[in-house]
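hey
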């Protein structure tokens, strides 16, 4: 017998520009709307698993979540450095110019 998970419909306000960037990036892997739903559900699931341990920290839940969010930003920069080291710095320059 297969276990099924009930999904709840929930309205979420997102930055439209950031949402579209992620949606377009995910379109390479199939239906971008299904992929967006998966990513949001997976992030919430992982966050729910981590919260009990994050609450035990003396720095507080919000600071822990901010810290781990900053790690994702740093990972992006590390990937940029990897691209530069491979001699493809023009891609990074174009990306920086698009962010302005």
């Amino acid at each position: 017998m297969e276990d099924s998970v009930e999904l709840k419909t929930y309205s979420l306000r997102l930055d439209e520009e950031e949402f579209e960037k992620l949606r377009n990036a995910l379109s390479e892997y199939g239906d971008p709307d299904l992929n967006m739903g998966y990513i949001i559900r997976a992030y919430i699931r992982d966050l729910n698993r981590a919260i009990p341990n994050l609450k035990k920290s003396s720095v507080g839940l919000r600071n822990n979540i901010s810290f781990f969010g900053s790690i994702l930003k740093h990972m992006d920069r590390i990937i940029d450095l990897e691209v530069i080291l491979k001699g493809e710095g023009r891609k990074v320059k174009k990306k920086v110019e698009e962010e302005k």
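The mean pLDDT is 81. Residues 70-100 form one domain.
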